[in-house]
Amino acid sequence: MRALCWEGVGKLAVRDVPDPKIRAEGDLIVRVRASSVCGSDLHLINGYLPAMREGDILGHEFMGEVVEVGPGVRQHRVGDRVVVGSVVACGGCWYCRTEQYSLCDNSNPQPVFTEKLWGHSPAGILGYSHAAGGYAGSHAEYIRVPFGDVGAFGVPEGVPDDSVVFASDAMPTGWMAADFCGLTGGEVVAVWGAGGVGQMAARSAQLLGAERVIMIDRFPDRLATAAERVGVETINYAETDVLEALRELTGGRGPDACIEAVGMESHDVGPTYAYDRVKQSARLQTDRPTSVRQAIMACRKGGTVSIVGVYAGLIDKFPLGAAMNKALVLRMGQMHAQRYIPMLLDRLAAGEIDPGYLATHPIPLEQGARGYELFEKKQDGCLRSVLHP
Ligand code: NAD
Ligand code: ZN
């Protein structure tokens, strides 16, 4: 089959690779119909998470059709149209039973460097390097989905491929970011990063009761889309002092909750090509205000900072003093896809969230590298390229 592979830092190519096979009784083989790019791929492509190997297949946000089922699969049949959570989870361990799927104990065999760097290993993620299980990704004609009964969900009729594909990752991530804010109604929420994740977080915050959402980015077209589609207020951080603007917009108090949906590139640490470089990244930090630091500094006293942007090593001068003395709640993590997807599919079918507008650039798999170029440079209004094998 054809697949979009990583060929070294910054290099992608579509290659012929062997078709995936059923390897465990719970496996599904899915013929991919739509597979989106995600901000997380940029960390991998550019070497910020140094566990990629030449030939690894990228992609973790996807939907498609079941073409083969392992003997232990109960929930799915050949021909089912499914969307698959990017996180791989066994469904049976203590973490999965408590719905903390991205911390699953049984889906990340032989992780590279994680125990040493982080103390424990989190769950596997499809197409997300050898730090996350080394699973082949979805930018391909076919993909093997382990623990298919846990990770794949039937798609409601009438929801288009290029919309439901975001139930795989951007929607649950955005929902979790807002969920972590503990909203009870009437809050002001600020969101750093107007990408797919930030925009889904903004919409989720509204649905969970936020009265106002303020979005921060530097790309005017992304901010304009978020204002039009989601109804957020906007701050362009390239033109405006973000902390001052947030103070002004909230009568001096600061947002009740701050969501960070940016990730490590905003922190000027430089790519960390190897484990040693990750360790050294603390030394590369600057005093430049960055999204995590701004979120902590901006948040009102006693508020919540929810981080879903991805971080790998020691990054940023972390203002722990501000967090401590303002009694902030800090929450973060890879999203627990399986906890949120069924509820989000209901909301998608009911039209409460419509992520379809994120698919600005549908593109053939063969042009996958171009899809990433548009996405990375935020060219031509690209919010997400969706690859079609
Ligand atoms: P994206 O690249 O489309 O969007 C990121 C946005 O952040 C860009 O528009 C960029 O201009 C903006 N940005 C950069 N520096 C900023 C700053 N200092 N202040 C405000 N905005 C800034 O990416 P995406 O697909 O929306 O993903 C966003 C982040 O979420 C990434 O780090 C990604 O890895 C992460 N993510 C996490 C999970 C999870 O499970 N936690 C899942 C998916 C994605
Ligand atoms: Zn588990």
From TrEMBL:
Highest classification ranks of the organism: Bacteria, Bacillati, Actinomycetota, Actinomycetes, Micromonosporales
Q: What are the UniProt keywords, alphabetically?
A: Metal-binding, Oxidoreductase, Zinc
Q: What cofactor does its activity depend on?
A: Zn(2+)
What PROSITE patterns does this protein's entry cite?
A: ADH_ZINC
The protein's matches in InterPro entries, at most eight in alphabetical order, are given as:
ADH-like_C, ADH-like_N, ADH_Zn_CS, GroES-like_sf, NAD(P)-bd_dom_sf
**Species, as recorded:** Micromonospora lupini str. Lupac 08
Family of this protein? Belongs to the zinc-containing alcohol dehydrogenase family.
Q: What range(s) does the Alcohol dehydrogenase-like C-terminal domain occupy?
A: 196-264
Q: Where's the Alcohol dehydrogenase-like N-terminal domain?
A: 25-147
Question: Which EC number(s) does UniProt give?
Answer: 1.1.1.284
| MF annotations from Gene Ontology | S-(hydroxymethyl)glutathione dehydrogenase [NAD(P)+] activity; zinc ion binding
Read off the Pfam families from this record.
ADH_N, ADH_zinc_N
Quote the protein name from its UniProt record. S-(Hydroxymethyl)glutathione dehydrogenase
